[in-house]
Amino acid sequence: MKKKLAVSTLAVSMAAATVAGLPLSGKGLAQQLGFVNVASAASTVTNDQVKTKFLTLYANLQPADWVKLGAFYKDVKALSESEYKGIFAPILDKLELNPTQTTTSYELFKSATSVVYDVYQSDYAAIGKIQTNADYTNLLKDIAAKAEVDDLSFDDFLEFFFGTSGVEAELRELLSGKTQSELQAIIDDPSASETLFEQAYNKVLNHATGSQKATTVSQAVYNLDITPTNVKDALYNLDVKVPSAKPAVQALAQAYIRAFKLGIADTGTSGPGAPTGVTPTTPSTDVSVFDASKLVTVTNGKAIVALVDADVIKAIQALAAAKKGTTLTINLGTVNAATVEVPISKAIIDAAKANGIANIAITFNGVTITIPVSQFDAAVTLTVTKAAPSVATSVTYLKLASDVYEFGLTVGGVPTSTFKQPITIKLPLKDTNGLDKELLSVAKIVYGNLQFQGGVLDGEFIVEPRDTFSSYVVVENKVSFSDIAKVQSWAGRQIQVIAAKGAIEGVGGGKFAPKKGVTRAEFAKMLIRALNLDNQNAATTFSDVKKTDWFAPYVAVAAEKGIINGRSASKFDPNAAITRAEMATMISRALKSVNNLKDSGTSATALSVFSDSAKISPSLKDGVAFAASKGLIIGNAGKFNPNSTATRAEAAVIIYRTINFK
Asked: Is 58 in contact with 103 (CB distance < 8 Å)?
């Protein structure tokens, strides 16, 4: 078990650091690490075979590729240690390296990422320098120790990456059956590359290693708390900070296709029987995905999907029988049309509800729309149009981070723009170089203005549930206030991020008023907006909350989900200042609702750190304890001050912690 954990964890760490590939074949590294390089009974690949693969790859690099690799080589050499730490912070933070080890990892990264270029120039000494560097050896030993390694051979690395069931084999299987033009499209198109990356990454994380085939990479990474998002964020950071990285990787990918003769010759269509303007997907064995790419017809820039009820219903029944989730994804593939129309019949809607399938998701070109079906009793038709950038740039000077999309839905043939259950949109990001990723927000374009909706980042996508349809775009929303200098050190960034998401606003005149108190109504809005729980159809029963009040829909949602209670059965008291204990309790209830969390039963322990815990109202103690146990609230000088009113700065900080809660 320990051996398999080490192989998996070190393999993923090395893969993340050596983005362009690292040919570490040979005995040098194995000897330095104290490993014996003898083929095991389970080994299906030798050092010579790995070396041959790389030499074949290099032989297919063209002069233009050399230029791209050279540019990457120079950019990496110029990268400072602080820049390196910023790029790989999502992984380095989890490895918990000391300053000396971090510096060593920085030097290893620079050496490793230059190897491809060096070997292309026939400088094989570069490999030896890495293999014989004692500092590198000790670093890898230390990381291995964190995974409790007591027995490991270098062949395990070769087997994991290049064996007959290794990572390379799985990637090639994903690419099998694709035409040469489809492979090139994957290399060139960020959304297609992202889709393939997600598929490959999921396969890698579920790839068994070791002779017993009992441990997966996901289990190993969990041992060091390295998540898929950590790796994707690090690679995203690299693309942003080192723009030459992506062209270098593309050059290697193209050389790989040439070297190993991947891709079926094109026959004038996107695939056998494929309609013009559509690239079919590779058939999936995943019962939660229905391939509809061959059911799309493109005419005059508009794509229409002709779903066959019987086939989709069969897929719904298969998914229900397999108990593999409650969302059926209908994959349209890559569609070359400005507008995509997807009719979903009443028979399909009814079948989904009857079989316990809660959602039908439509995905194409990196865009995914997930529709909860229980709210519909008639056929629905989804329409998505990619609009001109000017639709957004004509109303804002903010930098765009996605295409502009216009969403429409009809129910029973009647246009519908509001929903009882939010429909979730997942949009691919683009042109994000130089942008502050944490300040990205989905913006609704309405009446010539932008309304910021927030959204949750997922790699190179942003996800946002919407209870209304309109035109949407992702923007970098930089908000600044002139009066937050005194709270900048502990609340400045949090205020900026929460304001960017549209969950909190200034008070006018470029001011935020960080020390001003927060009312119960104001905090309800902040929290509901931050957690993307908006629902205009929610209704309140409090007598002091009118339907026309600006806070009515937020209070209604919060009450509906059990996040907030009234001061009495009929009174909410919206304009009363919220206390720190009430704020902590609302946060706790919201997280439990959104993430389906349960009380840990550690109230006494969590509250014992506060000397004034006796002052917390009995009805709020569980909420405060939960928030304290999750690190969402922190006392001051050993006190929590539960009955003190919360300030706007404090509200921003606790909401920031909440949206980043994992």
From this structure: no
Strand partners, 409: 382
pTM of the model: 0.58
Q: How confident is the model at residue 594 (pLDDT cuts 50, 70, 90)?
A: confident
Identify the residue with better confidence: 421 or 62: 421
Q: Which residue type occupies 281? A: T
The whole-number average pLDDT for the span 11-23 is 37
Strand duo 339-344 + 302-305: pairing = parallel
Distance of CA 464 to the CA centre of its chain: 12
Task: Give CA–CA dist 281/3, Å, rounded.
Answer: 37
At 89-116, the pLDDT tens digits run 888 888 888 899 889 888 888 877 766 5
pLDDT (tens digit, 9 = 90+) per residue, 29-47? 333 333 333 334 445 556 5
Direct distance between the N- and C-terminal alpha carbons of the chain, in angstroms, rounded to an integer: 27
Secondary structure E strands in 373-509: 380-387, 404-411, 414-415, 418-428, 440-446, 449-454, 456-458, 461-468, 471-476
- 8 Å CB contact between 315 and 276: no
Pairing of strands 367-372, 380-387: unpaired
- Beta pairing partners, 425: 369, 464
Which tokens is 58 given? 């290099």
Q: How far apart are CA 362 and CA 456, in angstroms?
A: 19
Residue 6, amino acid: A
In whole angstroms, give the CA distance from residue 58 to residue 510. 57
CA distances in angstroms from 36 to 158, 202, 410, listed in the order given: 13, 31, 66
Packing angle of the helix pair 648-659, 493-500 (nearest 10 deg) = 70
